[in-house]
Amino acid sequence: GRVAKNHSGNLRYKHIIELNLPKYSEAKSKVDKSLIVSSIIDSIRESSPHGGFVKEENGQWFEVGDHIAREKVGQG
Length: 76
Description:
The protein is mainly alpha-helical. It has helices at residues 2-5, 8-26, 30-47, 66-75, and strands at 54-57, 60-63.
């Protein structure tokens, strides 16, 4: 929703994705793209006190692992 979309962490995530989009688009191999995704995940995890990637379930928030984080960044 609107609250989540305007959350500072989500705004930072969107900014990091936008900064890396040209480099990702120009990557020639899946390995290169994977390295860019990894660097984005590392950057977000380092800047967040709670790991950076969370999911809400039944009214509670919990940190998700790298697999889900990679899917999220790949969608970005």
